Each structure stands twice: as C-alpha cells, then as structure tokens.
Amino acid sequence: MRIECGGNSTLGERNKKNKEVVLVDINEEENVVKKMSEPDKKEVEEGVGVLKDEVGEKRMDEDENGSRSGDKGLGDKEEGSLVRLPKRIQVGESPPYKIDRKLGEGGFGQVYVGRRLSPPHPHERNGAGAIEVALKFEHKSSKGCNYGPPYEWQVYDTLGGCHGIPRVYYKGRQDDYYIMVMDMLGPSLLDVWNNNAHMMSIEMVACIAIEAISILEKLHSREYIHGDVKPENFVLGKPGTPDEKKLFLVDLGLATKWRDTFSGLHVKYDQRPDIFRGTLRYASVHAHLGRTGSRRNDLESLAYTLIFLLQGRLPWQGYQVSIFLTWNATKVDIMLTLVLRLTPS
Questions:
Q1: Contact criterion met (CB below 8 Å) for 252 and 152
Q2: Is the domain of 194 the same as that of 336?
Q3: Do residues 291 and 210 both lie within one domain?
C-alpha cells in the first residue's frame, strides 16, 4: 500500500486521602471509564470475574463549553430491548437512503452505510449526491442527547470544511434517532495495521505522522481538541476515489474547546480525578489525572498511536481487568523507562 505524504500532503496531584485506581483491560473498547476508590477495590476483586461492564459508562457531566464526558453509546439497545432503526432514512433536505451494512459503533453512536434510493447519478461517489454515504445514529435516550441533538453536531458545524475532517451534509431527527449523513470513508489505520500482518514500515508511519500533525494543527487552530486520538479514529478516504490516500480524523464526540472564543485565552485549568475522557490505551497522562484538556493531550495520544503502529503494542498493554493501575504505576512512571527504548534509534 502506498501512502502519499508531504508538508501539506494528502494522507497520507495525586489525592493522598483517597488514592485512585483505574480498571484496565487489554481489549478496552470504550472511550469513557470509571475510576474507582481504594475501598471499592476489594469489593470488585471478590465479586467480579469479568468486569467489562464496569469499564464503560461514567456519569455524564457538562462543562462550561457544553462538552460532555459520557454517553450510553449503544443506540440500538435501550433497557435491554432492541430498538429498530428506520428502514428508510430522510432527514432535513436529504434524499432518501436505505440502511446497508454496519460499519461500526463506539461511545457516541453507531454508523451504517446508507445507499441512496433512485439516485439521479448512479455513478457519483463523492459529496452530498454520492450513492453511498455514512449514516451515524444516536438514540434519543443516549446521555449524549439529554439536552437535544448530540453535542457532536455543534462541533461538526464549527469544523465544516476543516482539513482532514469529514463533511456532514445533512442531519436531523427521525423517529427515535438523531442522524448525520456524512462522507463515506475507507479503512481506519487499525484496519490497515491488522491487514498488514500487524506491521507498518517506518516510512509509512512517518507519512502518517506528518499528515496527522497537519490535521491536528488545523483542528487546534479552530480552538478545538479532539480528546480521543487513536488508530481507530484516523481513517483513510474511500477506496477508488481521489481521497483514498487522504487521512481523516473522525468521532468528535469528545472534542472540547481549549481556548475561550470571546477572551481568546486558554480555558481555565481544572482537575477532576473522578472524570476520565478518552481511551485508556492512548490517553495522555493528564487525561488519566482528570485535568482540563489541552492541545498537548492530542499530541501525546498521537505519539502513543504512532508507537503502536510501528511496534505493534504499547508498554502498558497486558493489564487484565483484575489488575489495578495505581498512581504509582501510571504511564508517567513506565513511559520514561520503556517508550524511548521501544522507538527506533
């Protein structure tokens, strides 16, 4: 696989009274987790065999910027019952679509392929008139929708047309779901890594690094940080189109403002150890400590992403759900001794 790269290229404080512990799973998929106090540890170890349900939903808070730190996530499963998706999708002024295969799901909804019904241009593959689009669903009862449409919509409205951010063409509510009609994209970097025998060359990772930094620079210039940088959220363009070698950054459900729009100053520092945002494996040390997000968090997570793609694993992988990571064994402790040793000399 060939990836284009270049300068503007196209791929591409500890709480001493109540010490915190974090539940860690080598196969963590959720992007919001619950931190547990020391007294809870014994109870969990005694009563739980497999704790994946605990590594999931946290309480949802809304900060000054309107961002949200949690979401139920599974839009098609509410209170144990199956909620059917609409068979025919039409929101706002969009053309009608039928739902095709499922592309995936995460903490902020689920994504399906949408095929346009009776397209006037059957061979159109890009833009609002494309025969195939991505349909992102979020159920009305999701915590991300407690205040109306998903917060992510506001982020996409602000970032529309930003380099490396997919376009949203239509959005609206239909039945029990909030729906976005978006660009159909290709495989994620994790898919590429998996399909390449869990290997990537130094040259390929270098090209990815150049383009990913460019995307984050543009995102940060719009006063947002992504908050969940990882291989799954970097996606290539749709195969067979001019964008197939371009890199895109998706899933903006955890994006927040790093700078106040009116004052032009960095948002105020805060630390809330009970709140974690991101994905355990790739989250920055500051995110683990519950500190206000900033641009460095994205860059640190990008560094972990690149090391993973190059080396195939990160030093802190391998902790099972029954193992607890205390403040004395966080990434900041093992990063200094292992990360540099894992990178090329």
A1: yes
A2: yes
A3: yes
Determine contact, residues 230/301, Cβ cutoff 8 Å.
yes
Q: Please report which helix (H) or strand (E) contains residue 20, including its range.
A: strand 20-23
Closest alpha carbon to 297 in 311, 282, 309: 282
Q: What distance in Å separates the CA atoms of residue 318 and residue 308, rounded to the nearest whole number?
A: 13
- Calculate mean pLDDT across residues 136-151: 88
Q: Residue 120 corresponds to which amino acid?
A: P
First to last CA, the chain: 25
Report whether pLDDT(173) > 60.
yes
pLDDT at 38 over 60: no
Task: Report the number of distinct structural domains present in the chain.
Answer: 2
Please check whether residues 294 and 150 belong to one and the same domain: no
Looking at residues 132-139, what average pLDDT do you find?
Answer: 94
This prediction has a pTM of 0.74
Q: Nearest Cα to 75, choosing from 36, 110, 123?
A: 110
Residue 134 is predicted with a pLDDT of 95
Residue 164 pLDDT: 96
Which positions make up the binding site for ATP?
Answer: 136
Element (DSSP H or E) covering residue 340: helix 340-342
The set of catalytic residues is: 228
